[in-house]
Amino acid sequence: MYDTDHPHGAGAPALDGWTPLYIAANNGHAEVIRALLRAGANKDAAIKTGATPLYISTYHGHVEAVRALLQAGANKEAADKDGATPLYIAAQNGHVEAVAALLAAGANKEAAFKVRPGGGGGVVVRRDGFLVAWQEGLGDPAR
Predict the structure, then answer these.
(1) Whole-angstrom distance, CA of residue 139 vs CA of residue 143
(2) Which domain, by its residues, includes 59?
(3) Helix 96-104 vs helix 63-71: angle between axes, to the nearest 10 degrees?
């Protein structure tokens, strides 16, 4: 899938667009992420779908990987091609610790997911602290 001795360095993409950093984030390898970032890997390099290392680590709930990327200044608002942000995908998948890390880092809790033309949705923290993600047109999340 990728060549660790790639002549272009730690951030060199594989044929499918996955970089070593993306692979480490996908698997939750926080120490590998830190090593790759120290070597100059692009923390925001996206694959074909628009997913970044931060996105994929939140998708899987790899909290230490999320923290490592946030500490390195990864873009918290980088959305995939459908408009889903790391916070949105963490909320959708029920990864509370990843959600908390993103919110603590200042992620936009009102970012909407662009599901279809005219559609939308978002992430809200209710007064009771409960986090809700919704798709517009599927009902009011406050109900």
Answers:
(1) 8
(2) 20-106
(3) 10
Inside any domain, residue 114:
no
Q: What mean pLDDT do residues 17-44 have?
A: 96
Token look-up 């559609």 returns 119
CATH at 40:
1.25.40.20
Q: How buried is 142 (Cβ within 10 angstroms: 0-12 exposed, 13-18 middle, 19+ buried)?
A: exposed
The structural domain count of the chain equals 1
Q: Does pTM top 0.70 for this prediction?
A: yes
Give the integer Cα–Cα distance in Å for 92 and 55.
Answer: 12
Tell me whether residue 49 is in a domain: yes
What token pair was written down for 83?
């408009």
Helices 20-27, 63-71: crossing angle, 10 deg rounding? 140
* The pLDDT of residue 31: 98
Token output for 54: 């931060």
Q: Considering the domain boundaries, does residue 141 fall inside one?
A: no
Mean pLDDT of 25-38: 98
Structure tokens at 67: 């923290």
What is the token pair recorded at 8? 């272009």
What is the tens place of the pLDDT at every residue in 77-96? 999 998 999 999 999 999 99
